[in-house]
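JOB MANIFEST
job_type = single_chain_structure
chain_count = 1
residues = 289
[input]
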Amino acid sequence: MTPFELAEPQTVEEALALLDPDDDQVRPLGGGTALMLMMKAGVFRPKRLVSLRKLAQLSGIAATGEGGLAIGALTPLSDVERSAEVASRAPVIVRAMRRLSNVRVRNVATIGGNLAHGDPHMDLPPVLMALDASIAVKGRGGERSLRVEDLFAGYYETILKRDEIIVELRIPPQGARRAAYLKCTTGSADDWPALGVAISLEVDGKAIGAPRVVVSAATEKAIRLRGAEQVLSGATIDDSVLARAGDAAAEEAETVSDVRGSAAYKRELLRVYVGRAIRQALSSNGGAH
């Protein structure tokens, strides 16, 4: 790695002052699990890293009114995985964590960094999009709120400004919604996925209501599949509906080829996994289980 300056501010305001909106070689540093790999590979050569590790106010998990969650951006993924509040209010997150990389990474990586990195292979973004989560973002110009589904601009790209940092993840109350996340890996169970599919829906009698279908890993960024959602909305689930939802998803998603499979292969995976994820969500007992 090339030499770089490491700044360790004590407050959010100090951290923001150290960032440079006009210099992409100045970056904030959370857990650093992804950024350090990029630096070792020479993909990124920073001039200055602004460490956020001493900003204790950005860590922690709190329950909010009527069943929601507020999670500080510097909260390690392992804390989220072991949280009783998360397990009771959005257990689909806890289940997804068990196959998210390995425990060594989860002990260091932060939930804010996981989102800010913009890697389309990450497991959490599609899950959080399916849960209609949002983030609080702070910059020199003040604070703003963004839905997670609006955060990603492209491959490893977000709409965050260079002098902005994520300060909090907010998950709305899920009520009786049911959710599931499935991923297909071509290596070990915790490997980067060739495909990720997240589902969240309501059940009104035998009919599906307000479905949210999200695909990741097989596409340049995690995206909602509104065509599949339209097929599912108001439908009574049977094999025919699941097949039509899978066909709609495969037709809508622009899959990409990489070392984990061709675009055509991932399109067929998506066609099958949408139905599987819906079945898994329906087999849960509500509460985003």
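[summary]
The longest strand covers residues 193-204.
The chain has a mean pLDDT of 92.
exit_status = 0
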